[in-house]
Write a structure and sequence with these properties.
It is a single chain. The chain has one domain. With 192 residues, the protein is an alpha+beta fold. The strands form two sheets. A three-stranded mixed beta sheet has the order 3-5-4, sandwiched between helices. A two-stranded antiparallel sheet has the order 1-2. 42% of the residues lie in helices and 20% in strands. A hairpin with a 4-residue loop joins strand 1 and strand 2. Bound molecules: zinc ion. The site of zinc ion has 6 residues, from helix 2 and helix 4.
Length: 192
């Protein structure tokens, strides 16, 4: 049995898995061109991978099953990559976002919930642990929370969040995140 080490660099999470592997392709100039390159490498038709594609053109996660000759699964390889040329904060956010999609896909999103709790933030992510039955909208909200977590870790000024320009999923994730930060500060205030 394989022992793959999965390193979620921005989230600072290290995992082992016999079923999944994770490769972070980093920053690429063209998301679609890179997706096509991966499909050629995997020898699959790109249309067969649509189910794994998100609609955010700033980053993407793709996965492919590797099968043995008797059709049993050897492993599922996940690739994540983001568009180059973004600002420092956007790049951190998008990379954290894609890492979170991958963490969710392997059904380990509870680790992010625990990580947030360690920093005093309570956001119930375990209720969405069942990736396959999770609606796409919720997957995006969960991934955005991961992106926001990376921003917070890096000292981002949350007053600068572009809430008005953003879509519904981002606004929902931001409100959940900021509410949990507010609750944390309120609790800390009453401590002796
Ligand atoms: Zn996404």
């Amino acid at each position: 049995m394989q022992d793959n080490t999965l390193h979620f660099q921005l989230l600072d999470i290290l995992l082992h898995s016999s079923q999944y592997s994770l490769i972070d392709d980093g920053l690429v100039p063209d998301i679609d061109a890179h997706s096509k390159k991966l499909c050629e490498l995997w020898n699959v038709d790109i249309t067969a991978l649509n189910v794994f594609q998100n609609t955010n053109a700033q980053g993407r996660y793709l996965s492919a099953l590797f099968l043995s000759p008797d059709n049993s699964v050897i492993k599922e390889e996940i690739r994540i990559f983001c568009k180059s040329g973004n600002s420092y904060w956007d790049e951190l956010f998008y990379r954290g976002h894609e890492e979170t999609h991958a963490l969710h896909l392997i059904d380990r999103i509870g680790i992010l919930e625990d990580r947030l709790r360690m920093h005093g933030l309570n956001i119930d992510l375990r209720r969405y642990s069942d990736y396959k039955n999770c609606p796409d909208t919720v997957k995006e909200i969960v991934a955005h929370i991961g992106g926001l977590c990376v921003l917070a870790k890096s000292g981002y000024d949350f007053n600068r969040l572009p809430l008005n320009a953003a879509g519904n999923e981002f606004r929902t994730a931001s409100l959940l995140f900021m509410m949990s930060r507010y609750e944390k500060y309120e609790k800390e205030k009453v401590r002796p």
